[in-house]
Amino acid sequence: AAAFDPAVYRSDFPILDRQAASGAPLAFLDNAASTQRPTQVIDAMSDCYRSYYANVHRGIHTLSEESTAAFEQARVTVAQFLNAKRPREVIFTAGATASINTVARSWGDANVAAGDVVLVTIAEHHANIVPWHQLAARTGCRVEFLPINDGFTIDDEVMVEALDRLRPKLFAFTAASNTLGTIFPVQRWTKLAHDHGATVLVDAAQAAPHQVVDVQQWNADFVAFSGHKVCGPTGIGVLYGKEALLEAMPPFLGGGGMIHDVTTTGFTCAGLPEKFEAGTPPIVEAIGLAAAVKYITEVGLDRIAAHEHALSEHAESRLREITGVQIVGPVAGAVPNQKNGIISIHLPGVHAHDVSQQLDSAGVAVRAGHHCTMPLHHFLKLSATARASFYFYNTIEEADRFVDAVIEVQSKFAPSGRKRRPRT
Ligand code: PMP
């Protein structure tokens, strides 16, 4: 196969030609927080606003019928992207956070009781922790955390022991860590959890942009992801659920669009997917999301994964040569398919915010902080990390600029640190 050339795609992303405030050309390496959008997505959205926008499902007039058709076609496109059996298994939400909260409120309140266990990993984003803490406060269930090992993943034996001992009602885990860059084996873990009677929710926020997500192959019960991380708009995400589960769940939000009948004494629900889409849905965002998943599908998710992996391996191999730079995550390339395009670093004696600020002056955009994974940072005894995250439009030159900037920060802020031996 021909080598992957990011230049082919960069011309679709005018924002990538920008400069940072310092005047340096921008190397946008904050894709785990949010990606950029290609012209194709921006055009699909402005085309709707300019030429056929109206509220969906309600009006029997030309614009409403055209918007409704485009909105429902977007659902079909997303169902194909996930390889869902039917479009009605795809619920449009406000984002991955809203998707997980919907499961916690709707499925959780109906199925979880005092004494039950919700099992998560220590590597979860707050979006896959806080809703379960809230569920625990409402129901008296318990949230239990699986620890990660020295290789920044979880051994099957540790998981099986926990599943045997805790018999969780739900196992909710991320397909890929937004801090460590670890890719978890979703299909295998889902099978183990199902064998122990647990329902499975997969947080695919960091998987959907970078690898093929096949919900039937995963066999997960619920899958969540966000539009803005797959080159789509903000304000939209997806909750995939197996049809029978969604059918059995009560709605979470009540309002227009989700009802079959309303009287002064009560209501009956609409069917799927409307039951979970109360109020005016994110219409233009759904149309933009469909354009986005089509775009990345055309780029090719396997090629995206391979290119990001090559960038990670290159940057990491250089970073690991620098005494005093610790990489907080698995070694890229050590185990096949275990590390994505995220590199979090810790420079002993240098605050992550200083790293990020210095990198910004070199035009390199990375994120500093706990990345909404405070329990993971506590577990690792770190207060913050600086995180670079690649996407398919990033180049090897940008990866090198990141490493060069880290070397410069380190010599500036931690001159003695360069002589210390790294822990890993
Ligand atoms: N899960 C993971 C693993 C994430 O990285 C993120 C976003 N940082 C979320 C959930 C939440 O996504 P959103 O903020 O779009 O709802």
From TrEMBL:
Keywords: Pyridoxal phosphate, Transferase. It holds the Pfam family Aminotran_5. GO terms for biological process: cysteine metabolic process. Its EC number is 2.8.1.7. One of its GO terms (molecular function) is cysteine desulfurase activity. Residues 28-402 form the Aminotransferase class V domain. It is an enzyme of class 2 (transferase). It catalyses: (sulfur carrier)-H + L-cysteine = (sulfur carrier)-SH + L-alanine. Its cofactor is pyridoxal 5'-phosphate. PANTHER family: CYSTEINE DESULFURASE, CYSTEINE DESULFURASE 1, CHLOROPLASTIC. Belongs to the class-V pyridoxal-phosphate-dependent aminotransferase family. Csd subfamily. This is cysteine desulfurase. It comes from Rubripirellula reticaptiva.
